Fold this sequence. Notes:
alpha+beta
Amino acid sequence: xxxxxxxxxxxxxxxxxxxxxxxxxxxxxxxxxxxxxxxxxxxxxxxxxxxxxxxxxxxxxxxxxxxxxxxxxxxxxxxxxxxxxxxxxxxxxxxxxxxxxxxxxxxxxxxxxxxxxxxxxxxxxxxxxxxxxxxxxxxxxxxxxxxxxxxxxxxxxxxxxxxxxxxxxxxxxxxxxxxxxxxxxxxxxxxxxxxxxxxxxxxxxxxxxxxxxxxxxxxxxxxxxxxxxxxxxxxxxxxxxxxxxxxxxxxxxxxxxxxxx
Length: 261
């Protein structure tokens, strides 16, 4: 072989080796792409996001809040307004509902107070009676309301909160305070107190004083507190004068008393 032929043969062998090297490099690159895809195709894996999102935290279900429902629609005991007033509502929900239903049918105002201090559940139904008011006093016996007395007052019933229960006379049974439309002050209110002291229900009269005109069972513009002494108010010489009272068990009436203090 001539020197020229030998040089040409060497150049051809170098070219074939370079081509083969390039082919091997291409196969390796293809294998790398397939490995990154990981799912059997030649797709290029997407670049990872610069900011990784934290997994969402599951939120527990919320708990509903609010007052528990009252079974059977039975009215619940009401918190009394005014210092010293007793709680309302009978201890037997079914009996409470039956008296409320009766009052609704008769158009009466009703109030009850639960048993305490040896006395049973007591209730009162007040309704208009001509120009005055009739008040029926009932007690709960064996799940039934029994009427013990019906008292009448000479003035009409005050709309709204006309009945409440208090310990005015200090007897075993609570006393029913009935609010009436009257009194000598502007938008004044009279009150009459029904007690069972002595064994039967009756109005408690006040002893006659210079302040009192008219029916002695009417207490003008009363102010009750949580003690046995309460006040009535009237106008005298353009001024408002107050008179304090305390129950006199021996006389069975309200007697003038010194102001509490």
